[in-house]
Amino acid sequence: MSTEMTKTAPQAERASESTRGVAVYRPPVDIFDTGEGVKMLLEMPGVGRDDVEIDLERRVLTIRGRGHVTSPEGYRRVYAEYGEGDYERVFTLSEDIDEAAIRAEMNNGVLTLTLPRAEAAKPKRIEVKAG
Q: How far apart are alpha carbons 103 and 72 in whole angstroms?
């Protein structure tokens, strides 16, 4: 590989371009059913806690992250595993999710969303009585 070549191989699917002139990627997401609700993990390298915006309107959950790339001083990048840019993902939530109890945590470029199931949507066991 020539040191004159700069190559980028994004992990996340490129969706569009933002108004600030950078690419917007769809971050990869893992979604788990925890029994008590849903847990989502979104990978957004270069995004800090203060750079995440999460909106919920009419059961539509929109997640945006503004990426920041830091390069070590005195080096010139010749290869990158992910593209520089922002992130955006949109999900439609079922009525089973308790919207008021959603929690979000950002740690090392991974956003974890906890979406608890609403009490009315949780399975209930019906006791059978002897008659």
A: 34
CA dihedral for 15, 41, 34, 60, sign (positive or negative): negative
The span from the CA of 46 to the CA of 38, in Å, is 25
Structural domains of the chain ordered from first start: 27-70+78-120 (2.60.40.790)
User: 99: phi > 0 → left, psi -120 to 50 → alpha, else beta; which?
Assistant: alpha
pLDDT above 70: percentage of residues in the chain: 80
> Who has greater pLDDT, 47 or 2?
47
pLDDT of 66 reads 92
Is the distance from CB of 67 to CB of 51 less than 8 angstroms? yes
Question: What is the pTM (predicted TM-score) of this model?
Answer: 0.74
Q: Which residue has the tokens 């371009």?
A: 17
